[in-house]
Amino acid sequence: MKTKLLASALVISSLTLAAAGLAQGVNAQVSATPQAPVPQVTQVQADDSQFIVKVGVAVVVPQSNNGTLASGAFKADIGSSASMSLSLEYLLMKNEDIGNLGVELLAAYPFHNSINLSASASGAHVAKGSVNVLPPTLTVQYHFLPNYIVSPFVGVGLNYTLMYGARIDIPGASVRVKNSWGVAPHAGVEFNINKNWLVSADVRWVEMKNDVSLDGGGIGSVNINPWVFGVQAGYRF
Asked: Disulfide: which of 148, 169, 184, 227 matches 159 by Cβ 3.0-4.6 Å?
């Protein structure tokens, strides 16, 4: 898990550095265009706005190998899903020279993920089901270039995943997927439209390992560890 977390953090850091470099280039090129001088977002963020609310769509893509259950007898496969997302960020620090620091709370309408079980030895289908996933995440994040049209950000958060409504198509069987805690590195970029409005795109990796029980007895755990991709529209106030 530490290796996966380090790899995910390195990927997100690389994406952030690339986005920051691209943003500087785009901002410099746009600012240098005589026909269309673009205001640095001094006018956008020089006011008293301390909050950013965003509404968008998020897609959860679990890792490809979700583990085995019942002492290795069954292979678990958790499907991808999409849902509406909502976030609220409070800016703890606003500084046009060194960047902005904020705390974001991410919520979403519950995701509905499929569960497929197959025999580990033969690959034959055994059962299918589903589970509802609600992953609120609290993130501390740093915004680069806050006074420009293109502003990347990077952060790290703590996620608590609520699993409920699990079902499986085995007659008379009752399945439960337990909740979990995990870290969640995060990166993205904001495109500032005007003083209040913006659009953004982001990606985060969520550490998500959940114990599974069947008819009250533990049968192992699934490693979901999804990448979460999102696009949002935001408003400052």
From this structure: 184
Sign of the torsion formed by the C-alpha atoms of 150, 92, 17 and 185? negative
pLDDT over 90, % of the chain: 73
Reported as a single tens digit per residue, the pLDDT across 188-233 is 999 999 889 999 999 999 999 999 999 999 999 999 999 999 999 9
SS3 assignment, position 98? coil
The residues spanned by each domain of the chain are 2-236
Contact 44, 96 (CB under 8 A): no
CATH number of 2-236: 2.40.160.20
Candidates 208, 100, 219; CA nearest to 160 is 208
12: left (phi over 0), alpha (psi -120 to 50) or beta: alpha
Q: 77-80: which pairs have CB atoms within 8 A and are 24 or more residues apart?
A: 77/115, 77/116, 77/117, 77/118, 78/113, 78/114, 78/115, 78/222, 78/224, 79/113, 79/114, 79/115, 79/116, 80/113
